Protein backbone atom coordinates (compact mmCIF):
# COMPACT_ATOMS: atom_id res chain seq x y z
CA UNK A 1 0.00 0.00 0.00
CA UNK A 2 1.60 3.26 -1.11
CA UNK A 3 0.72 6.81 -0.14
CA UNK A 4 -2.24 8.24 -2.07
CA UNK A 5 0.01 10.70 -3.91
CA UNK A 6 2.49 7.99 -4.86
CA UNK A 7 1.20 7.61 -8.41
CA UNK A 8 1.75 11.28 -9.19
CA UNK A 9 5.29 11.50 -7.86
CA UNK A 10 6.82 10.91 -11.31
CA UNK A 11 4.71 13.70 -12.78
CA UNK A 12 5.92 16.24 -10.24
CA UNK A 13 9.48 15.12 -10.82
CA UNK A 14 9.14 15.31 -14.61
CA UNK A 15 7.42 18.68 -14.49
CA UNK A 16 9.84 20.04 -11.90
CA UNK A 17 13.00 18.94 -13.70
CA UNK A 18 11.63 20.18 -17.06
CA UNK A 19 10.86 23.60 -15.59
CA UNK A 20 14.26 23.75 -13.92
CA UNK A 21 16.06 22.69 -17.13
CA UNK A 22 14.12 25.28 -19.14
CA UNK A 23 14.95 27.89 -16.54
CA UNK A 24 18.62 27.01 -16.71
CA UNK A 25 18.66 27.24 -20.51
CA UNK A 26 16.82 30.57 -20.37
CA UNK A 27 19.30 31.81 -17.76
CA UNK A 28 22.29 30.91 -19.95
CA UNK A 29 20.59 32.39 -23.00
CA UNK A 30 19.80 35.66 -21.20
CA UNK A 31 23.34 36.17 -19.98
CA UNK A 32 25.54 34.65 -22.67
CA UNK A 33 23.72 34.41 -25.97
CA UNK A 34 23.70 37.95 -27.36
CA UNK A 35 27.41 38.54 -27.78
CA UNK A 36 28.74 41.33 -30.02
CA UNK A 37 30.15 39.04 -32.75
CA UNK A 38 32.01 42.02 -34.25
CA UNK A 39 29.01 44.39 -34.18
CA UNK A 40 29.44 47.86 -32.73
CA UNK A 41 26.39 48.44 -30.54
CA UNK A 42 25.27 51.14 -28.18
CA UNK A 43 25.79 49.66 -24.66
CA UNK A 44 22.62 51.41 -23.49
CA UNK A 45 19.96 50.76 -26.11
CA UNK A 46 21.91 48.17 -28.20
CA UNK A 47 21.30 50.12 -31.48
CA UNK A 48 23.66 48.89 -34.21
CA UNK A 49 26.29 51.62 -34.79
CA UNK A 50 28.22 49.76 -37.54
CA UNK A 51 27.57 52.57 -40.02
CA UNK A 52 28.58 55.31 -37.54
CA UNK A 53 32.28 56.07 -36.83
CA UNK A 54 31.41 58.02 -33.65
CA UNK A 55 30.93 56.42 -30.21
CA UNK A 56 27.79 58.49 -29.68
CA UNK A 57 24.56 56.62 -30.28
CA UNK A 58 22.47 58.10 -33.07
CA UNK A 59 19.38 56.55 -31.53
CA UNK A 60 19.49 57.47 -27.82
CA UNK A 61 22.40 59.91 -27.67
CA UNK A 62 24.43 57.89 -25.16
CA UNK A 63 28.15 58.19 -25.63
CA UNK A 64 30.18 55.08 -24.86
CA UNK A 65 33.27 55.96 -22.73
CA UNK A 66 35.53 53.75 -24.89
CA UNK A 67 35.51 51.88 -28.20
CA UNK A 68 35.69 48.60 -26.23
CA UNK A 69 32.35 49.30 -24.58
CA UNK A 70 30.68 49.05 -28.00
CA UNK A 71 31.49 45.34 -28.20
CA UNK A 72 29.89 44.21 -24.94
CA UNK A 73 27.66 41.16 -24.62
CA UNK A 74 24.05 42.11 -24.10
CA UNK A 75 22.88 40.58 -20.85
CA UNK A 76 19.12 40.48 -20.33
CA UNK A 77 18.95 40.81 -16.57
CA UNK A 78 15.20 40.77 -16.16
CA UNK A 79 14.94 37.58 -18.17
CA UNK A 80 17.81 36.11 -16.09
CA UNK A 81 15.85 36.91 -12.92
CA UNK A 82 12.74 35.34 -14.44
CA UNK A 83 14.85 32.26 -15.29
CA UNK A 84 16.00 31.97 -11.67
CA UNK A 85 12.36 32.14 -10.59
CA UNK A 86 11.62 29.38 -13.09
CA UNK A 87 14.43 27.20 -11.68
CA UNK A 88 13.10 27.73 -8.15
CA UNK A 89 9.60 26.87 -9.32
CA UNK A 90 10.93 23.69 -10.95
CA UNK A 91 12.79 22.73 -7.77
CA UNK A 92 9.66 23.34 -5.69
CA UNK A 93 7.52 21.35 -8.09
CA UNK A 94 9.92 18.39 -7.95
CA UNK A 95 9.65 18.57 -4.15
CA UNK A 96 5.85 18.46 -4.05
CA UNK A 97 5.74 14.72 -3.20
CA UNK A 98 8.15 15.37 -0.30
CA UNK A 99 6.24 18.46 0.73
CA UNK A 100 3.07 16.41 0.89
CA UNK A 101 4.71 13.89 3.19
CA UNK A 102 7.09 16.12 5.15
CA UNK A 103 5.90 19.72 5.05
CA UNK A 104 7.68 22.92 4.12
CA UNK A 105 10.91 21.86 5.85
CA UNK A 106 11.48 19.61 2.85
CA UNK A 107 12.25 22.74 0.85
CA UNK A 108 15.35 23.42 2.94
CA UNK A 109 18.45 21.86 1.38
CA UNK A 110 20.20 19.21 3.51
CA UNK A 111 23.43 21.20 3.68
CA UNK A 112 21.53 23.93 5.50
CA UNK A 113 19.55 21.49 7.67
CA UNK A 114 22.63 19.70 9.04
CA UNK A 115 24.11 23.00 10.23
CA UNK A 116 21.04 24.84 11.56
CA UNK A 117 18.98 21.98 13.04
CA UNK A 118 19.34 21.83 16.86
CA UNK A 119 21.59 18.76 17.36
CA UNK A 120 19.37 16.90 19.80
CA UNK A 121 17.51 13.60 19.68
CA UNK A 122 14.75 13.31 17.13
CA UNK A 123 11.61 14.82 18.76
CA UNK A 124 9.66 11.59 18.23
CA UNK A 125 10.29 8.28 16.61
CA UNK A 126 10.64 9.21 12.98
CA UNK A 127 9.44 6.67 10.53
CA UNK A 128 11.26 6.35 7.25
CA UNK A 129 8.82 3.91 5.68
CA UNK A 130 6.26 5.81 3.55
CA UNK A 131 3.17 3.71 4.40
CA UNK A 132 3.53 4.56 8.07
CA UNK A 133 4.63 8.13 7.51
CA UNK A 134 1.23 9.06 6.10
CA UNK A 135 -0.95 7.03 8.44
CA UNK A 136 0.72 8.19 11.67
CA UNK A 137 -0.82 11.31 13.16
CA UNK A 138 1.86 14.02 13.11
CA UNK A 139 2.22 15.82 16.42
CA UNK A 140 2.60 19.56 16.27
CA UNK A 141 6.29 20.34 16.28
CA UNK A 142 8.10 23.62 16.75
CA UNK A 143 10.26 24.98 13.94
CA UNK A 144 13.40 23.74 15.69
CA UNK A 145 11.96 20.28 16.27
CA UNK A 146 10.95 20.04 12.63
CA UNK A 147 14.51 20.83 11.56
CA UNK A 148 15.95 18.26 13.95
CA UNK A 149 13.48 15.68 12.75
CA UNK A 150 14.38 16.54 9.15
CA UNK A 151 18.08 15.94 9.82
CA UNK A 152 17.45 12.53 11.41
CA UNK A 153 14.84 11.32 8.97
CA UNK A 154 16.97 12.34 5.99
CA UNK A 155 19.87 10.43 7.54
CA UNK A 156 17.65 7.40 8.12
CA UNK A 157 16.35 7.37 4.58
CA UNK A 158 19.87 7.74 3.17
CA UNK A 159 19.27 11.20 1.71
CA UNK A 160 22.34 12.80 3.29
CA UNK A 161 25.81 12.61 1.82
CA UNK A 162 28.61 11.21 3.99
CA UNK A 163 29.94 14.64 4.92
CA UNK A 164 26.46 15.97 5.70
CA UNK A 165 25.92 13.01 8.04
CA UNK A 166 29.26 13.60 9.71
CA UNK A 167 28.59 17.33 10.08
CA UNK A 168 25.29 16.73 11.89
CA UNK A 169 26.57 13.78 13.98
CA UNK A 170 29.62 15.72 15.16
CA UNK A 171 27.31 18.50 16.34
CA UNK A 172 25.02 15.90 17.97
CA UNK A 173 27.89 14.17 19.81
CA UNK A 174 29.36 17.49 20.97
CA UNK A 175 25.98 18.68 22.26
CA UNK A 176 25.59 15.36 24.11
CA UNK A 177 29.07 15.65 25.62
CA UNK A 178 29.86 12.18 24.28
CA UNK A 179 33.17 10.82 25.57
CA UNK A 180 33.93 7.58 23.76
CA UNK A 181 36.61 6.72 26.33
CA UNK A 182 33.87 6.43 28.96
CA UNK A 183 32.19 3.68 26.93
CA UNK A 184 34.73 1.17 28.24
CA UNK A 185 36.35 0.67 31.63
CA UNK A 186 39.72 -0.83 32.48
CA UNK A 187 40.83 -2.23 35.87
CA UNK A 188 42.78 0.33 37.92
CA UNK A 189 45.73 -2.09 38.02
CA UNK A 190 46.44 -5.50 36.49
CA UNK A 191 49.18 -8.16 36.68
CA UNK A 192 51.21 -9.24 33.64
CA UNK A 193 50.41 -12.93 34.14
CA UNK A 194 46.61 -12.69 33.76
CA UNK A 195 44.42 -12.09 30.70
CA UNK A 196 43.52 -8.41 30.69
CA UNK A 197 39.78 -7.59 30.81
CA UNK A 198 37.92 -4.50 29.60
CA UNK A 199 34.33 -3.79 30.56
CA UNK A 200 32.01 -2.61 27.81
CA UNK A 201 29.82 -0.08 29.60
CA UNK A 202 27.92 1.33 26.67
CA UNK A 203 27.47 0.19 23.08
CA UNK A 204 24.94 2.58 21.70
CA UNK A 205 23.71 6.16 21.78
CA UNK A 206 19.95 6.69 21.45
CA UNK A 207 19.00 9.11 18.68
CA UNK A 208 15.25 9.29 19.12
CA UNK A 209 14.86 7.56 15.76
CA UNK A 210 14.29 3.85 15.28
CA UNK A 211 17.95 3.59 14.27
CA UNK A 212 20.43 3.89 17.17
CA UNK A 213 24.07 4.88 16.88
CA UNK A 214 26.12 1.85 17.86
CA UNK A 215 29.75 1.80 18.91
CA UNK A 216 32.26 -0.78 17.79
CA UNK A 217 35.66 -0.98 19.40
CA UNK A 218 38.65 -1.78 17.26
CA UNK A 219 41.88 -2.88 18.91
CA UNK A 220 45.31 -3.34 17.46
CA UNK A 221 45.86 -6.38 19.73
CA UNK A 222 44.48 -9.93 19.63
CA UNK A 223 41.46 -10.33 21.89
CA UNK A 224 38.38 -12.36 22.76
CA UNK A 225 34.97 -10.73 22.71
CA UNK A 226 32.52 -11.54 25.49
CA UNK A 227 29.00 -10.32 26.04
CA UNK A 228 30.04 -7.43 28.28
CA UNK A 229 33.81 -7.81 28.39
CA UNK A 230 36.71 -7.87 25.99
CA UNK A 231 39.70 -9.96 27.08
CA UNK A 232 43.29 -9.66 25.92
CA UNK A 233 45.20 -12.94 26.36
CA UNK A 234 48.67 -13.06 27.89
CA UNK A 235 51.40 -12.25 27.11
CA UNK A 236 50.07 -8.70 27.11
CA UNK A 237 51.53 -6.40 24.50
CA UNK A 238 50.81 -3.14 26.32
CA UNK A 239 51.67 -1.71 29.74
CA UNK A 240 50.60 1.92 30.01
CA UNK A 241 48.31 2.65 27.07
CA UNK A 242 45.94 0.61 25.00
CA UNK A 243 45.10 2.15 21.62
CA UNK A 244 41.36 1.95 20.93
CA UNK A 245 39.53 2.92 17.80
CA UNK A 246 35.81 3.66 18.00
CA UNK A 247 33.64 3.08 14.96
CA UNK A 248 30.24 4.69 15.13
CA UNK A 249 27.55 3.00 13.09
CA UNK A 250 24.16 4.39 12.17
CA UNK A 251 22.20 1.27 11.35
CA UNK A 252 24.75 -0.78 9.44
CA UNK A 253 26.56 2.19 7.98
CA UNK A 254 29.81 3.44 9.50
CA UNK A 255 29.41 7.18 9.95
CA UNK A 256 32.28 8.28 12.20
CA UNK A 257 35.61 7.10 13.56
CA UNK A 258 37.45 8.26 16.65
CA UNK A 259 40.49 6.94 18.46
CA UNK A 260 41.99 7.29 21.89
CA UNK A 261 44.66 5.85 24.14
CA UNK A 262 43.11 4.09 27.11
CA UNK A 263 45.42 4.49 30.12
CA UNK A 264 46.18 1.11 31.71
CA UNK A 265 48.51 0.08 34.53
CA UNK A 266 49.97 -3.37 34.07
CA UNK A 267 52.75 -4.39 36.40
CA UNK A 268 54.08 -7.32 38.45
CA UNK A 269 52.30 -10.63 38.95
CA UNK A 270 49.12 -11.83 40.65
CA UNK A 271 51.11 -12.37 43.88
CA UNK A 272 52.30 -8.77 44.03
CA UNK A 273 49.08 -7.19 42.70
CA UNK A 274 47.25 -6.57 45.96
CA UNK A 275 48.72 -4.05 48.37
CA UNK A 276 48.37 -4.78 52.09
CA UNK A 277 46.86 -2.34 54.57
CA UNK A 278 47.78 -3.44 58.10
CA UNK A 279 48.67 0.02 59.44
CA UNK A 280 46.95 1.36 62.58
CA UNK A 281 45.09 4.03 60.61
CA UNK A 282 43.48 1.40 58.37
CA UNK A 283 42.68 -0.92 61.31
CA UNK A 284 41.08 1.93 63.31
CA UNK A 285 38.87 2.72 60.31
CA UNK A 286 37.86 -0.94 59.89
CA UNK A 287 37.01 -1.31 63.57
CA UNK A 288 34.84 1.83 63.50
CA UNK A 289 33.19 0.80 60.23
CA UNK A 290 32.38 -2.79 61.23
CA UNK A 291 31.33 -1.46 64.66
CA UNK A 292 30.87 -4.97 66.18
CA UNK A 293 28.34 -5.40 68.99
CA UNK A 294 25.76 -7.84 70.32
CA UNK A 295 22.01 -7.36 70.13
CA UNK A 296 19.42 -9.43 71.89
CA UNK A 297 16.73 -10.94 69.72
CA UNK A 298 14.28 -13.67 70.84
CA UNK A 299 16.21 -13.96 74.11
CA UNK A 300 19.49 -14.76 72.35
CA UNK A 301 22.55 -12.57 71.73
CA UNK A 302 23.35 -11.99 68.04
CA UNK A 303 26.61 -10.65 66.63
CA UNK A 304 26.02 -7.49 64.57
CA UNK A 305 28.54 -6.16 62.02
CA UNK A 306 27.98 -3.21 59.71
CA UNK A 307 28.08 -3.38 55.90
CA UNK A 308 29.42 -0.89 53.40
CA UNK A 309 27.11 2.15 53.16
CA UNK A 310 27.32 5.82 52.26
CA UNK A 311 28.25 6.78 55.81
CA UNK A 312 31.44 7.55 57.71
CA UNK A 313 33.87 5.94 58.10
CA UNK A 314 32.96 3.63 55.20
CA UNK A 315 33.33 6.56 52.79
CA UNK A 316 37.02 6.68 53.70
CA UNK A 317 37.61 2.94 53.11
CA UNK A 318 38.71 2.25 49.55
CA UNK A 319 40.40 -1.08 50.32
CA UNK A 320 38.73 -4.47 50.36
CA UNK A 321 37.87 -6.23 53.64
CA UNK A 322 37.57 -9.98 54.11
CA UNK A 323 37.60 -10.80 57.80
CA UNK A 324 37.52 -13.92 59.93
CA UNK A 325 36.49 -13.51 63.55
CA UNK A 326 36.54 -15.36 66.84
CA UNK A 327 34.20 -14.71 69.76
CA UNK A 328 36.21 -15.17 72.94
CA UNK A 329 35.07 -15.67 76.52
CA UNK A 330 37.90 -15.30 79.01
CA UNK A 331 40.63 -17.46 77.39
CA UNK A 332 38.41 -19.67 75.26
CA UNK A 333 37.11 -19.30 71.72
CA UNK A 334 33.37 -19.98 71.83
CA UNK A 335 32.38 -18.98 68.29
CA UNK A 336 33.91 -18.45 64.82
CA UNK A 337 32.80 -17.04 61.46
CA UNK A 338 33.72 -14.74 58.61
CA UNK A 339 32.44 -11.46 57.14
CA UNK A 340 33.07 -9.92 53.71
CA UNK A 341 31.37 -6.53 53.28
CA UNK A 342 30.15 -6.29 49.69
CA UNK A 343 31.11 -3.41 47.39
CA UNK A 344 27.49 -2.80 46.44
CA UNK A 345 25.92 -0.53 49.00
CA UNK A 346 22.52 -1.35 50.31
CA UNK A 347 20.50 1.78 51.01
CA UNK A 348 18.01 0.35 53.46
CA UNK A 349 19.87 -2.29 55.50
CA UNK A 350 23.52 -1.66 56.24
CA UNK A 351 24.09 -4.15 59.05
CA UNK A 352 24.50 -7.91 58.99
CA UNK A 353 24.05 -10.78 61.40
CA UNK A 354 26.93 -12.99 60.21
CA UNK A 355 26.56 -16.68 60.85
CA UNK A 356 28.54 -17.74 63.94
CA UNK A 357 29.54 -21.35 64.59
CA UNK A 358 29.08 -21.56 68.38
CA UNK A 359 30.89 -24.16 70.48
CA UNK A 360 29.26 -22.83 73.66
CA UNK A 361 25.95 -21.13 74.36
CA UNK A 362 26.74 -17.37 73.99
CA UNK A 363 23.89 -16.36 76.34
CA UNK A 364 25.33 -18.41 79.13
CA UNK A 365 28.90 -17.28 78.43
CA UNK A 366 27.73 -13.64 78.46
CA UNK A 367 26.20 -14.11 81.94
CA UNK A 368 29.58 -15.32 83.26
CA UNK A 369 31.97 -12.79 81.68
CA UNK A 370 32.16 -10.12 78.96
CA UNK A 371 32.69 -11.44 75.41
CA UNK A 372 35.42 -10.17 73.08
CA UNK A 373 35.70 -10.28 69.30
CA UNK A 374 39.02 -10.85 67.51
CA UNK A 375 38.87 -9.73 63.85
CA UNK A 376 41.57 -10.49 61.24
CA UNK A 377 41.81 -9.37 57.62
CA UNK A 378 42.71 -11.82 54.83
CA UNK A 379 43.87 -10.85 51.33
CA UNK A 380 42.92 -14.06 49.42
CA UNK A 381 39.14 -13.47 49.04
CA UNK A 382 39.78 -9.85 48.09
CA UNK A 383 42.25 -10.89 45.39
CA UNK A 384 39.80 -13.46 44.06
CA UNK A 385 37.00 -10.87 44.09
CA UNK A 386 39.19 -8.33 42.30
CA UNK A 387 40.34 -10.72 39.58
CA UNK A 388 36.73 -11.74 38.93
CA UNK A 389 35.40 -8.16 38.69
CA UNK A 390 38.03 -5.42 38.91
CA UNK A 391 36.07 -2.58 37.27
CA UNK A 392 34.32 -0.76 40.10
CA UNK A 393 37.09 -1.11 42.68
CA UNK A 394 38.58 2.20 43.81
CA UNK A 395 41.88 0.67 44.95
CA UNK A 396 43.76 -2.60 44.64
CA UNK A 397 44.30 -2.99 48.39
CA UNK A 398 43.10 -5.27 51.15
CA UNK A 399 43.05 -4.89 54.90
CA UNK A 400 45.35 -7.41 56.61
CA UNK A 401 45.33 -6.01 60.15
CA UNK A 402 43.86 -7.37 63.36
CA UNK A 403 41.91 -5.90 66.29
CA UNK A 404 40.13 -7.06 69.42
CA UNK A 405 37.07 -5.34 70.80
CA UNK A 406 34.77 -6.00 73.73
CA UNK A 407 31.25 -6.87 72.56
CA UNK A 408 28.68 -4.63 74.21
CA UNK A 409 25.01 -5.45 74.28
CA UNK A 410 23.14 -2.75 72.34
CA UNK A 411 19.65 -2.38 70.87
CA UNK A 412 19.20 -4.17 67.55
CA UNK A 413 19.68 -1.67 64.66
CA UNK A 414 16.58 -3.02 62.91
CA UNK A 415 14.14 -2.55 65.80
ZN1 LIG B 1 21.66 54.05 -27.90
Please describe the structure with a list of short key phrases separated by commas or semicolons:
disordered N terminus; 3 domains; 18 strands; 415 residues; single chain; 30% helix; five-stranded antiparallel β-sheet; 22% strand; alpha+beta; Immunoglobulin-like; four-stranded antiparallel β-sheet; binds zinc ion
Task: Explain the overall architecture.
With 415 residues, the protein is an alpha+beta fold. The protein folds into 3 domains: 6-109 and 122-146, no CATH class; 180-270, Immunoglobulin-like; 274-407, no CATH class. Helix content is 30%, strand content 22%. It has helices at 9-33, 77-94, 96-102, 110-116, 130-135, 143-156, 162-176, 270-273, 280-290, 362-368, 379-388; strands spanning 184-185, 196-200, 204-205, 213-219, 224-225, 229-232, 241-250, 253-263, 275-277, 293-297, 300-306, 323-329, 332-339, 351-352, 357-358, 371-377, 397-399, 402-407. Helix 1 runs antiparallel to helix 2 and helix 4 packs parallel to helix 7. The chain is rod-shaped. Bound molecules: zinc ion. Zinc ion binds at residues 42, 44-45, 47, 57, 59-60, 62.
Order of helices and strands: HHHHHHHEEEEEEEEHEHEEEEEEHEHEE
Number of strands: 18
- Report the average pLDDT across residues: 88
Query: How many domains is the backbone divided into?
Result: 3
Ordered list of secondary-structure elements with their pairings:
Blueprint: H1 9-33, H2 77-94, H3 96-102, H4 110-116, H5 130-135, H6 143-156, H7 162-176, E1 184-185, E2 196-200, E3 204-205, E4 213-219, E5 224-225, E6 229-232, E7 241-250, E8 253-263, H8 270-273, E9 275-277, H9 280-290, E10 293-297, E11 300-306, E12 323-329, E13 332-339, E14 351-352, E15 357-358, H10 362-368, E16 371-377, H11 379-388, E17 397-399, E18 402-407
Helix pairs in contact: 1-2, 4-6, 4-7
Bound molecules: zinc ion (ZN).
The site of zinc ion has 8 residues, from loops.
